[in-house]
Amino acid sequence: MKLLVIEDEKALRESIGDYFADEGSICEMAHDHASAMVKVNLYRYDCIVLDINLPDGSGLDILRHLKKERLSDGILIISARNSLDDRLTGLDLGADDYLTKPFHLSELRSRVAAIVRRKAFDGNNELSFNEIDIDLLGKEVKINNTPLKLTRKEYALLLYFITNKNKVVSKNAIAEHLWGDSMDVADNFDFIYSHIKNLRKKMLEAGGHDYIQAAYGLGYKFTAI
Amino acid sequence: MKLLTRYNRLTIMVTIMIMVVAAVVYYFTITLVLSKQVDKALIVEENEVQEYVAVNNALPHIFTTNHQSVTFTKTANKLPRAIRDTVYQELKGNEIEPARVLYTNVQVAGQNYLVTVIQSTVETEDLLKLIFGITSGLIFTLLAALFFINRFILSSIWQPFYVFLNQLKGFKVAENTGIPAIASNIDEFRELDSAVSIMAARVKDDYHTLKTFTENASHELMTPISIMNSKLDSFVQTGEFTDNQSKILNDVYGSLNRLTRLNKAMLLLVKIENGLINDEKEINLKKLTADTITQFEELTDNLNIEISSDLHDHTIKANLPLMEILLNNLIGNAIRHNKTDGQVSVSLDKKALRVINTGDNKALISQDIFQRFHKASASEGTGLGLTISQQICDNYGFKLSYSFEDGRHQFTILF
Question: Is the reported ipTM for this assembly greater than 0.95?
């Protein structure tokens, strides 16, 4: 997976870079409008993570340029402005998704992965991980070809974990992913545990490995064996 | 008390007092003057009698008229001379009239006579009555005139004042309309006009600065919060943590999350107040309410709270995210501030949405709960939820109110 992160905050840029760096992804960085334009004109990316507020221009201009040139890079806008206008303008201009700051890195990764999958598979939406096969369109999961009956939240959890495999995913991040940020996160901590317990049980019963482990009371980790 | 009433009362009272005092003084002066005149006539008569007696040494012939009579009575001794008030009987008829009497003595051939000269004062009384009538007529005319003049002054000359008053009543600091200038050729009102305009502009300006500051501050905070969030996410990947360390990290995650929500809530509030959220469409409130209740399913199952709902069709034109936030806040509060095995009932019809819940058996103070950052001490919330809810309701002309009855808390939105 080849990524371009256009973000003016060095600290945030580096965190994103580190999070995506393992697993053979190439993650390039641009810190302003000018350097970003150079990169998007020279190379193609699977996904561009684009901050709207840049010191020397608007990220929306880069988006406009990409669309004008009919370049098919996936685009995820990240912005501190949660205003509906920015969101709509961004999506109208052809961005694939919009994520409001602050976000969890696992959430960013899950969104980026979803964009990349959509771009790459073009309708044949199958995701495989060891013995687990996921049909992304039908939202069906099979383990060793045995269909798994998962609830909506369990399915979302599994996909989230696979996208963030080998990472500690915090309970806060999971709660926000499953219930959205309009809900009080603390309300839902207890339910995360029961959803994960059920998911593990179903996977084990279908003959799968036990991938999901609690991580020091902070969250969970999907460990690829 | 109205200015007109106060002003009328004052002027009319002063006028009446002056008039009454003047009338009394007038009355006594006139009475005095007139009775002096009558007394003079009596003395003239007395003198005539004395002169006649001196010249003729006999009593004069008496002609009693309607207004005057002179009588002579034989007395042994001289009686003291005196002038007094008395009554007088007319020649024709039996009418008794007020009169003045003069007693004096004459001596005719060694015999002492008491002379009684009576002069009717009925004409004087008539005159006084006339004067009294004219005076009271004058008072009433003057009062009526004053009343109408005051009324005219207040309704026409004071008109700009009432226009100002209405404009100030309608003045809203959050709205963009200014206070229009008022044409008046009265200096005081012109000064008031410019003072009010300057004040309104300054207040709006200050308010705008404050809002912009809040918005900018919240936006600027988002970047460091993002960095902290991502650094924390990166940090937890770095290795093994002891129980104590993970507890600390969990607390940091929790606080960061709270900071984020607080910041988002403040931004949202500023945006609603600024009227920046105006993407409206038809919303099926029945469906939205039912969806919101479903969202809280897990929470209610966990706390064993029974949710009953009685929803009827109602469609409104509003911004969807705002309505979601509104319902989320009200229904979420009803669940969070409930008790185990409690109840929540949600009803919706064309007139109102009601959320009723069990909970602490103590009424909340309704003027406090809608205040910013007011919250229950145990609450994990931002303290802005109800403020935002009320702001959303204000935005669409709904009325949000709280009541407490039979141990149940009720929030009502009247459409």
Answer: no
